[in-house]
Structures
1.
Amino acid sequence: MTREHQHTDGTATAASGPRRRTVLLTGLAGAGAGVVTGAGAAVARERATPAPDLRLERARASARPFRGEHQAGILEAPPPYAAFVALDLHAGADRDAVRRLLTVWTDDIERLTAGRGPLTDLEPELAAVPASLTVTVGVGPRVVGLAGAERPSWLAPLPAFPQIDKLLAEWSGGDLLLQICAESPTTVSHAQRRLTAGVADLAAVRWVQRGFREPFEGPGVPMRNLLGQVDGTVQPDVTGLDADLLWVGDDGPAWLRGGSSVVVRRIGMRLDAWDRVDRLSRENAIGRRLDTGAPVTGGRVDTPADLEATDELGFHVVDDAAHLRRAHAAAPHERFLRRPYSYDDGTGPETHVGLVFVAYQADPVRQFVPVQRRLAEMDLLNLWTVPVGSAVFAVLPGARSGEVLGQAMFA
């Protein structure tokens, strides 16, 4: 439409003389104002241009390497957000189905961790910020059997712990595991969606457990769970002298060398009952101070507890049933790498909160089970916690250049 008058019949005529002069004068005045306004707008735009968002730049530049001897997501410091996803292969799956699934995941994970969407990603913008994303893949006994590989003896459900376990199928077992961790919950959610949707014709989701850790905890404090307890305080030196406690070596199946195992235990917490316990009793049950995480025998969070120390009455300062004492390694091999996450699935008549306890080790039967047996037999924390889920997976070795995850299973 032009700046001419429009009649009701749709025809147009030029504006009248006085009207035209008014328009011209107004236009000239407006043009002059426009020069000022335009310059002012340019200045305003320059002033309004935001400074580079350094946080976003760091997030975009925080891509973790995907390829290597070991999978990512094990040795790195755990980021604040995680999702643990178990899947079951469809009925009738065969060796080729397993190979195709791992091929798809290899390509998709490599793209996602580099900040690129998978080939089928309709929202690649959501993948543009990798936020230290790591995806760690584990496999269960069915996958190993279909691939025709040797199954390690420990790749099976953990022994029953009837004193404490109230396991539910909805949180236990699975043929495959995805551990997805990042510094952004959006990054975790998007990766989870793309990785599960990408293999929907081969496998179905069995369970999903989402977890979080406090990102603003003070330095030197590993993690504080929802009981207020500093968690994961005793860790082996798996990057040095204790590396054999984490990685499968020559005594394991050849296809798994450089890999590991992971135990995922979902532990519910009875916070309503915990709320009725005084602080001294809480610290006695744990064997550690709640404020610093240090043992009740003194020191810092990383100070070894003095399990022989006694009080003036001759009783152990660390209670005989304290969690710290029962979880203490009775032999050098009874150690494993802890990567726990809290969960909170909402409140209501019954709270659903707790800990997704994640433990990496070379052999869970040798390393994890003895500790768990002691905890099941006598641990004061059993009064306020209950395991409701349990699963064991073999963690595949890393994929080197040109390789597919799990490639050695098919050799």
Note: The first strand starts at residue 5 and ends at 6.
2.
Amino acid sequence: MKSKTKKRLFTLISIAFIAYFIYIIFSQQPRIDMLIVEKQRVQEKIKEQDAIYEQLLYYQSIAGTDEYIEIMARLRLGYVKPNDLIFISTGD
């Protein structure tokens, strides 16, 4: 008799633990989804920063050359060559 009672008690406790762990897993899913989205956002930010880093490495490699001076004059000062085509945005 005691053996059946112990088995039944063990089964009920096991079912309770399994149900509890299933509840924990499903209750954590929204947090996991949020973290996945955050991870994707951070990975995109890393890609952007890598592109900036590569550009800076390129500028460092050509620093002091005529090419570098020309690029900086065009980017920062808005200089153009005589035969360049200029596009003006209307701000739409």
Note: The mean pLDDT is 90.
3.
Amino acid sequence: MAFFGLFSKEKKESLNKGLEKTKESFFSRLGKAILGKSKVDEEVLDQLEELLIAADVGVETTLTIIKRIQDRVAKDHYLTTSELDRILKEEVAALLGATDVEQSNADFELPADKKPYVVMVVGVNGVGKTTTIGKLAAQFHKRGKKVVLGAGDTFRAAAVDQLKLWGDRVGVPVISHGMNTDPASVAFDAVKKAVDMQADVVIIDTAGRLHTKINLMNELSKIKRVIQKFIPEAPHEILLVLDGSTGQNAVIQAREFTKATEVNALAITKLDGTAKGGVVIGISHEFNIPVKYIGVGEKIDDLQVFNKYEFVDSLFSPSK
């Protein structure tokens, strides 16, 4: 029986497939750790701690999970290894925050009172930032939303060209001034276009450079200022895209970008190509920023709205 069976069958299958490498690595080793044991003791918890760290959950988050399970053992006086799967799911889900179940299942919905809804996307080069923007545009467009894209990563010709290709593929306008132009000017024109055409959402790409953090901070601040000339409370969402396959490097990137700008949502990509899917838990817990989207494959529909219950159920359930 599923932990909180709320996803469609197709999305659940996509999630299970996307997390397969992490699941296989985790459960093959967990099975060996508890083989022949009937109760959860210190040895089992030590093994579980090692497995969670190996899955890139992170040391601090792992210790918090282990402490929660220890408290359950102490409270119940006896916890069997057959119950460990359920307890692990419950404690990790609790750690991911008090997300409303229905809201966490929102299918690429947009706030009705914010139009256009302005999303500024940040992240280093190579994490799948532009692809994530394209997939988001496709999902919103498929649901009848008017979408505008802004090609604000003007330091890479490939990023500008890639976003234009996504715009053509999806059928949405892309505002671009080409390479080596002012990103803030692109953002200004993108938001103006969105206001003029009464768009539902405008998504603005930005340059992914960490090695010049002060310049990056100044650049992002300038983009926000020009956006606010049209919509004072915008951007409504600053979405940080991280590559889940890089494990703890993604944590370092999150740390740097949260210093540079006010990130309030996360998208974690490429979880299908890694055994480090636990990094989603560690990042969410450490930074207290909601994971909004996860990428579990190459197809457009493999970018999913994150549901912590379904994620935990899939991650900590053995493969069929």
Note: Residues 1-6, 100-105 have pLDDT under 50 and may be disordered.
